[in-house]
């Protein structure tokens, strides 16, 4: 993040700083599997993404969070990824374990959202990679496609909503804890697919 972004979005900047190492480790772990080398490899990558998005789906259905993120339901990509799996002839994975939204505080849930919403930024680059497999936003790679109003605009709206949250010091720590939990779960689900 630039210094201007750090000034305008201090909470988001701190989220990025505190999760940088685990985020980089996850990215490296994914790319080590060469997800775009073949449709088979891409299928494994899709299965991982499906498990993660299905796991967090209750967060996108939370009535408490919609108060802070009015477009929350529209941000959910589960339907898209199920269609993508079907496009390439794969069934959805049986290990669907969804997060217990009632076990999370609002701040923790927002930390989880930070991780999942942030992954959409990297999806822009991945959407270009997947074209070499003859897949695109209409077939096989819907979940990588940006929203109608643009990825950057949607991300700015999310950042502004996170910065506007009125959190106590304890809730601030819960926010960072939630983000770290999300990355840890992503690592575990990746191991489920590639074990």
- The helicity comes to 55-70%
CATH class type: Mainly Alpha
Order of helices and strands: HHHHHHHHH
CATH architectural category: Up-down Bundle
Taken as a percent bin, the fraction of beta residues is under 5%
Q: Could you state the CATH homologous superfamily?
A: Heme oxygenase-like
H/I helix tally: 9
Instruction: Find the CATH topology.
Output: Heme Oxygenase, Chain A
Main sheet: strands, sense, barrel: none
How far is the N terminus from the C terminus?
Answer: 34 Å
Query: Are there runs of 5+ residues with pLDDT below 50, and where?
Result: none
What class would the helix/strand composition place it in? mainly alpha
Which oligomerization state do the chains in this entry correspond to? single chain
Number of strands: 0
Question: Which whole number gives the mean pLDDT?
Answer: 92
- Overall spatial form: globular
The tally of structural domains comes to: 1
SSE arrangement:
Blueprint: H1 3-8, H2 10-31, H3 39-60, H4 63-66, H5 72-75, H6 78-87, H7 106-129, H8 151-164, H9 169-194
Helix pairs in contact: 2-9, 3-6, 3-7, 3-9, 7-8, 7-9
């Amino acid at each position: 993040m630039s210094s201007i972004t750090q000034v305008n979005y201090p909470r988001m900047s701190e989220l990025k700083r505190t999760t940088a190492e685990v985020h980089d480790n996850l990215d490296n772990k994914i790319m080590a599997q060469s997800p775009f080398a073949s449709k088979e490899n891409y299928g494994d990558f899709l299965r991982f993404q499906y498990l993660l998005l299905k796991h967090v789906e209750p967060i996108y259905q939370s009535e408490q969070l919609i108060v802070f993120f009015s477009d929350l339901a529209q941000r959910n990509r589960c339907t898209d990824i199920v269609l993508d799996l079907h496009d390439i002839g794969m069934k959805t994975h049986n290990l669907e374990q969804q997060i217990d939204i009632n076990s999370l505080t609002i701040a923790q849930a927002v930390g989880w959202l930070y991780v999942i919403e942030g992954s959409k930024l990297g999806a822009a680059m991945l959407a270009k990679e997947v074209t070499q497999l003859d897949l695109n936003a209409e077939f096989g790679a819907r979940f990588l496609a940006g929203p109608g109003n643009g990825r950057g605009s949607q991300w700015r709206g999310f950042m502004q909503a996170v910065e506007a949250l009125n959190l106590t010091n304890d809730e601030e720590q819960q926010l960072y804890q939630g983000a770290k939990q999300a990355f840890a779960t992503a690592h575990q689900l990746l191991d489920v697919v590639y074990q």
